[in-house]
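Per your request, structure below.
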């Protein structure tokens, strides 16, 4: 796992502990929303980092530059979009991720719910977020990050 991603994960773990410690429900909910947005950011950072690390080892500098630019603004990484991105590199990568998601519907559902919730929060829609839901999203996002490391070699 990339050092930058590890630091991001450690920071998120601290944020979740902080949110969970709050006695004021409004503050707890607000912190849970912030953490939710950051968890979706974890997926983006981890995917970009993994692709960057891969291209650093496997491709000429021009291709690395292209990939860095291409994925600079990537967001909203629902399960289908993640599969499509991996498929743009390799059908094997896409098939491996699709297999994992089909064997674990909870993981796919969690990814899609996380991104939908992130968009609702970011666009000011009323959304209820519990710390327990955020913990599950974080756990599942970490599993996806681990899959990136397994698949993108």
């Amino acid at each position: 796992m990339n050092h930058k991603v590890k630091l991001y994960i450690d920071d998120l773990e601290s944020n979740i502990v902080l949110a969970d410690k709050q006695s004021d429900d409004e503050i707890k909910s607000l912190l849970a929303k912030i953490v939710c947005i950051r968890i979706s950011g974890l997926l983006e950072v981890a995917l970009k980092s993994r692709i960057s690390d891969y291209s650093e080892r496997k491709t000429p500098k021009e291709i690395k530059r292209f990939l860095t630019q291409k994925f600079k603004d990537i967001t909203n990484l629902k399960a289908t979009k993640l599969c499509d991105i991996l498929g743009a590199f390799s059908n094997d990568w896409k098939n491996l991720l699709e297999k994992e998601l089909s064997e674990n519907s909870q993981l796919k559902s969690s990814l899609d719910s996380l991104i939908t919730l992130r968009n609702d929060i970011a666009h000011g829609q009323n959304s209820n977020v519990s710390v327990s839901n955020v913990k599950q999203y974080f756990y599942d996002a970490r599993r996806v990050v681990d899959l990136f490391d397994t698949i993108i070699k």
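The chain has a mean pLDDT of 94.

Regards,
D.
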